[in-house]
User: Which sequence fits this backbone?
């Protein structure tokens, strides 16, 4: 089984938040297939770069993807498509 790169993890995390809307850390962790402590580190990194934003809904905290995060997600999808196509030409 091939290991995921850091960018694959960012892509999975952002995609999970985009699909689910405002998401608590446990939902992000399950969707991105990460342990909760690792998901917290990833979300904190993405938050410090302005790609996700922490919001409160009800009595819990959740995270929402920002416009900049959406642009970054689209760029990651494009990059992944180019990298995956690269292997087909050899």
Assistant:
């Amino acid at each position: 089984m091939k290991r995921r790169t850091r960018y694959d993890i960012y892509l999975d995390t952002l995609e999970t938040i985009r699909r689910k809307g405002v998401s608590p850390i446990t939902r992000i962790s399950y969707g991105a297939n990460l342990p909760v402590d690792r998901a917290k580190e990833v979300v904190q990194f993405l938050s410090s770069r302005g790609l996700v934003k922490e919001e409160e809904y009800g009595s819990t905290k959740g995270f929402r993807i920002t416009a900049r995060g959406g642009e970054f997600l689209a760029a990651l999808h494009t990059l992944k498509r180019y990298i995956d196509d690269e292997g087909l030409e050899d």
User: Anything to note?
Assistant: The chain has one domain: 6-86. The longest strand covers residues 52-57. The radius of gyration is 14 Å.
